[in-house]
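Hi there,

I know you've been waiting on this one. I reran it after we fixed the sequence typo, so this is the corrected version. Both the input and the resulting structure follow.
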Amino acid sequence: MTWQDDLQRLDERFAAKSVSAAEYRAQRDEILASASSVPAREPGPDPRAAQAPADPGPAERREAPITGASTGHQILIGAIALVVMVAAAVGLWLVVLGDDGPEPLDNPVSAKPLEAVVSIIGPLPGVPDANSGVLGLDQALDARLLAPGEADLLRAAGVQRVGFLGSTSGSTGYGVIIAELAGPSQAATTAEDQRHQLASDGYAENGAVNGLPRMTQTTDRNVVQRVVYASDRFTVRIGVSRAVGAETEGLEEELAGITNFVRSVLPPS
């Protein structure tokens, strides 16, 4: 079994909720660290190539068959490339998801553009939403990812695009909306405005998730729980939902788990 297989199995266990977000990050770091010490093998067709670990880098590349006198040279190049790729992946995940959280000074995630932040957080557990990525406000509104009032207040704050990450795992839906503001003070004000907008839209504050106010709305169709906070110049809105009639026990834990996952990249200011 390869380290790519180990990563895929870990992703499947996380999607099935058999490991917590903290355990997922720790085990992923261990797998990537172990992979960096495995001797490179001669490249060749790999039927499991599509199972290579997802990361913010380019998609996997298939090398041409190795023939003739250049075999040794190409093997050496392949070995060097493998070591560099693994080292880069290990470094990225240790920075983003390590025990100490995002690197605070040399390369803060908050200094990166919106596209990079969305890529670093990566796909959420389960089946990804087709709308995941960076969208204009009108696109997000048309896709029903934003309510009209929230879209209006973001537009008034100078926001033109949002990052969206969504997925479905079993009966649970996950959604993350990231908006980029001019600076930390604007982000803090806008996050507060977003919480007030949720209240206007029928959400009620009931408890907290790791110190962040939890907002809940129950309709005739579903139950939705959200948190909103500022992280440097970004606002972050995280939500989980289940259809009415589905088992809602444990929904608070789902919100806490996905919030911790996102906070490891974008911590509250």
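Quick highlight: Strands lie at 127-128, 133-136, 161-169, 172-180, 204-209, 212-218, 222-231, 234-243.

Best,
R. S.
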